[in-house]
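Submission checklist for the structure archive. All mandatory fields must be present; incomplete records are returned to the submitter.

[x] Identifier: Glycoside hydrolase family 5 domain-containing protein
[x] Organism: Aegilops tauschii subsp. strangulata
[x] Residue count: 364
[x] Sequence attached
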Amino acid sequence: SKLYLRIKIKVFMRQSHSVDGVQANKDASLTADYGQRTSWGDDDPSVFVVTRVTGLQGEYQICNGYGTTKATPILRNHWSTYIVEADFRFISESGLTAVRIPVGWWIANDPRPPAPYVGGSLKTLDKAFKWAEKYNLGVIIDLHAAPGSQNPFEHSSSKDGSQDWGTTDTNIAQTVQVVDFLASRYAKSPSLLAVELMNEPLAPGVSLESLKTYYRDGYNAVRKHSSDAYVIMSNRLSSPDPTEFLGLAGGLPGSVIDVHYYALFNNMFDTFTVQQNIDFIKTNYSSDLSIVTRENGPLTFVGEWVAEWKVPNAAKQEFQMFANAQMDVYERATFGWAYWTLKNVNNHWSMEWMINNGYISLKN
Ligand SMILES: *[C@@H]1O[C@H](CO)[C@@H](O)[C@H](O)[C@H]1NC(C)=O
């Protein structure tokens, strides 16, 4: 089909880093000057198959790869089976007090989001609010994917590794609209704890200036509808200055600064021993957190952490020490912390699995 062809060509172009070899023919087919032999098989990286291609594997790729029609039942099934009411009961019974729910900007256009996205995410968030209300949990709505993508990763729904958020004023205004929409829809719910304006903007692509403009406007959009919902502002990844939003947030009551700490994503951790990991939490991340946590300053939130590391074949007791070291430090964040994530196919990334198997014990 045409769509299939388009996807092949698109991925092919990324592989070859060349866009000048694609040609439209009179019979409406496209030919591409690949310059190499290709099998077009499932193990051929020039063909889009989300489980077999190394590259981005996010919601955009699922929707674009399958096409909206085929992706619709796949995502709807995921939304209705992956996190269910029993999970909210579990969260509540574990002594946790809130859930941080990532959403994409197209939720504001539900039930008819622009292609290739699939409608139905808004109903799913509505359902989460109902369960949160029932089990007395707070909800942090986390705008995880902003229009144009605020980082090049799949979780900001980058199409192809590009990062364009904040490069136009329209972009910023559109994001404020999304926040306005979400705040307006959920302001009356007793479970609305916070709106997080944006997850993990990456410097220097996201400039300090555009993000300050957006944070101020986004804050005002939340305050239009709610006087008491917290407004969370993420520090920029790769920023040279972790205090760059303290001034702005400090002047806006109910603001929270979000920082994410992982003992991953840096080659330094590849060779760390158990003790080195724990020391790093206790000295470096502890000091990083105290730099942003100031008396009379905004609240602070370790919005993502995980008890996963690069230590090979670690014992259960070592994971317990690692998790405890992190909780001991992160509980000093004045707004709290959140584990990434609740459920995951990889056990250590799944807080439910970690709790159920005794790797994490919450102090209640
Ligand atoms: C971690 O903290 C120690 C002790 O303060 C310091 O010597 C070291 O440079 C820090 N490492 C990094 C990567 O920040």
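[x] Structure attached
Curator remark: The CA atoms of residues 9 and 33 lie 10 Å apart. The beta strands are 22-24, 30-32, 98-104, 138-145, 192-196, 230-234, 255-260, 299-305, 336-339.
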